[in-house]
Write the structure tokens for this entry.
Amino acid sequence: MAFSTSIIIVLLFSFMLAGCSAVPREEYIAAEIPPEWQQPTNTTQVKSSAWIKDFNDPQLETLIQQALINNHDLKASAARVEAAFAQARIVGADLNPSVNGSLDAQRRRSNSDNNGNVSNDYNTNLGAGVDVSWEIDLWGRLSSRASAATLDFEVSEAEWQAAQLSLAASVARSWFNLTESQLQLNLVEQRFSNLSDNLITIEEDFKLGLRDALDVYLARADVAGEQARIANRKSSVMNARRTLEILLGQYPEGLIKSTQNLTPLSTPIPSGLPSELLQRRPDLIAQLKQLEATNQLAAAAHADRFPRLTLTGDIGTRSNELNNLVSSDYLVWSVFGGLTAPIFDSGRLEAEEERAVANIKIAEANYNQALLTAFQEVEEGLINETLLKQQESALKTASEESIAAENLAFDQYQNGLREFITVLESQRRSFDAQSTEIDVRNQRLQNRINLYLALGGAFIDDTEKKQNNQP
């Protein structure tokens, strides 16, 4: 099949235009789209799993794996990756010729009148053909859009990985919050038990005339107050259970049980953490890919202002007999080359390009802001680690001393050496110190989670571990 003279002229003219203009764009290397995208089924291979072991809590590891499998928000994130993958394939298909086959058949009856005699004529028309259409990517418009779609797929994939890391962190937070709520409930129940025993002793002494009625009233008020506090703590425990169950993809029945202790941290923060660790953060990777995608879209918007060369052709057969459709004698074909260029559009294409360039500035600013925020999160996590450790140590001492003071104050009260108001104050201080100590222990764990989240994983990168043959 040979091109006509007009088609050759169009091609030469188009290539001359290509040599006179260049599309300003920054080149990025995007990963090629595989034939299909498969979500990993083995969730234990998630990059974020390394830091979880630093908490020395096997049950927490089990819960996180359960959440990675069953959490519905994470499933939606994976589905968005599939959609982005399909969209990338759709856009990339524009780079290749479009081929369509056709097969048609027509049976027609016509009537003719010859001196009052009506005759019927029957006619059959059969056709088969192939149509080909292809836009030659002279200015890189189609390749730029394909690259942008590929980068969008990489963005969604990075966001999916970020969702996994965020989900693991949320499960850990909820698990430690549940444990703290349970410990706070246990503390209140123990305080209620102690106050109830003290009330019995005071009431017996009052009957013997050894105590004032005021002491009885104050002791009863304390017991009633703790009953109300127990109800409040039970509500907190149930809410924490349901929050965790939702993350695990379970019905929020409030049946999940917590441990009876907040496992202390055993892995210290190494000195001199490299800032390069932030490069593995999936959310920052997504921001960078988004910036690259907007650059490609700007290049495509610039190329939209130049002519487009489209080649179309069709080949086929047409006959009134079915067996003639495969005969070369009935072969027909045509080739057409079309060059279209925008002449007047009231500045629409120029405005589209300006908008695309503005989107680059937006994406660049968003990435820089996200990077600064990441550094802030790391700095806060590091300084809070030191301060919370000091606070926990001081509160542990305060808790031990206040418990001793509480016991001594009640003993002295029973011996008539102290007033009951002193006992109440020592009990309050003891409870506050123990409750605050539990809270700060949880804060330390929460801060370590935030630090791991800020770094995008453990203190040592997985690739570095492999190079050093670390497990």
